[in-house]
Write a structure and sequence with these properties.
Helices cover 37% and strands 24% of the residues. By secondary structure, it is α/β, with parallel strands linked by helices. A seven-stranded mixed β-sheet has the order 3-2-1-4-5-7-6, sandwiched between helices. It has helices at residues 11-17, 23-30, 47-54, 66-75, 110-120, 139-152, 159-166, 196-203, 207-210, 214-229; strands at 37-41, 58-63, 80-83, 96-102, 121-134, 184-194, 239-251.
Length: 253
Amino acid sequence: MLHASSFGAAAAAYAEHRPDYAQAAVRWALEPAPGPRVLDLGAGTGKLTAGLVALGAEVVAVEPDPAMLAELRRSLPDVRALRGNAEAIPLPDGSVDAVLAGNAMHWFDMAAAGPEIARVLAPGGVLAGLWNVVDDRVAWVAGLARVGGSAAIGPRDTPAAWRAETAGMHLPGTGGAARFGSPEQAEFVHGQRRTADSLVAALATRAGVLVMPERERESLLGRIRAFLANEPETAGGEFTLPMQTGVLRVHRL
């Protein structure tokens, strides 16, 4: 099973356990947009979509996976939600002022998606990717990253790794008639209330975990449960998972 297509099997768990995005991060992503029309591209179950709606944006969501799209439509019935992908966006030319992608831009084939994003963006529009990362400057979170390994805490899931991974990646090329300006990065403090069980459930929706053989997956999740049960910060009920929302932003010239 390909990582990018693994989420549909866990759509309900994804909707329940994945975090939203820091509202300050969403506002910063939208700051330079020339108008209120926003495309949430690779919208999943609508985690970012809901934040955009809360800020008063006119949102259309596009998602390729039918199970994820069904969850989005169930939770946000008033949002226009279309099946499609970044490489073939089902919208007219110049129809949105901003294109945002929550934990999704690294799945795009930018050779095809870049021209499509430029096509649907109005002049002066903004493209922004948002990623939630765990703050491994906190000791127990660093321990969790070690125990979870790259399957549960992936190559862009901590602040330093996110900065390095996104600095020159995941954006459209500079060729073609539609040009983009220089990229900008920013990070915003975020957090999510958790229990040990709900954190394990969230990590179980990570692509690297979803594609594991069942025995290997259960072994990994068991090690994570044992770790959390032995950490003072996480053993006694609810706690806050320290996070950041990182934003990579670029303007269409």
